[in-house]
Specification:
This protein is mainly α. The protein has 2 domains: 83 residues, Orthogonal Bundle (Death Domain, Fas), CATH 1.10.533; 96 residues, Death Domain, Fas (Orthogonal Bundle). The chain has 12 helices and no strands. The longest helix is centred in the middle third of the chain and has 17 residues. It is elongated and about 65 Å long. The relative contact order is 0.10.
Amino acid sequence: MDPFLTLLHSFSSSLSDSELSSLKFLCRDNIGKRRLEAVQSGGGGFFSILLEQQLIARDKVSFLHILLESIKREDLVSQLNQFVEEGEVYAPDDQPDMHEKRLQKAAMEVICDNVGRDWRMLIRKLGVSEVKIDRIVVANPYNLHEQLAQSLREWQKWKGKDAKVSDLIKALRACNMNLVADKVEQKLLPLNAGTR
C-alpha cells in the first residue's frame, strides 16, 4: 500500500465538514466548480481530485502543505512534515547505478537468509527509524524474513544512490554479525570480479 495514499486517507477522515468547505474554497482557482461541488463529506474525494489534477503527488507536497496551514491544521502539517523527513518522498533519479543495485540485491539475499531475530539491531544501525520498523512489523506480523527484507528495502529507498553495500557490511560487523558479513563479501567477489 502506498504510504502517501495512507497519509491522505488519514487526513481525509480527520477533516470536519467546515474544514473541507474551506479547502474547497481555497482551491476554486485550481479545480472546476462542478468537480468541487461533487465532493460532499470526507476529504477522500477532494484528495483524489488533487492527485488527478497533479496538484499533489508523493514528491510534490508544497500545495498540500499550504492548504493545511491555511485551515490551521497544524497537527496535519506536522504529520506531513514527518512523512517528508522520514524519506517517504524521494526522487527517482536518486538511485544507485545498475552494478551497485546488483551488489545490493545479492547482499540483501545473503542477509535475509542468515540474520535471524536480531535483524532490528542491524536495521537500527543502518539508521532506519523506529516508526518505519514498527510499520513494517505491523504489516508482516508473523514473517521475520519479510520484515527484514522490507526493512532493507526501506533503507535502500531512504538512502537512494548513497545506499552502498559497504555500509551493509560495516553495519553487520558493528552488530557482531561477522559471519554474515563474511558470507556477503564471498557472494560479492564474483560479481565484483566481473566489472574489472
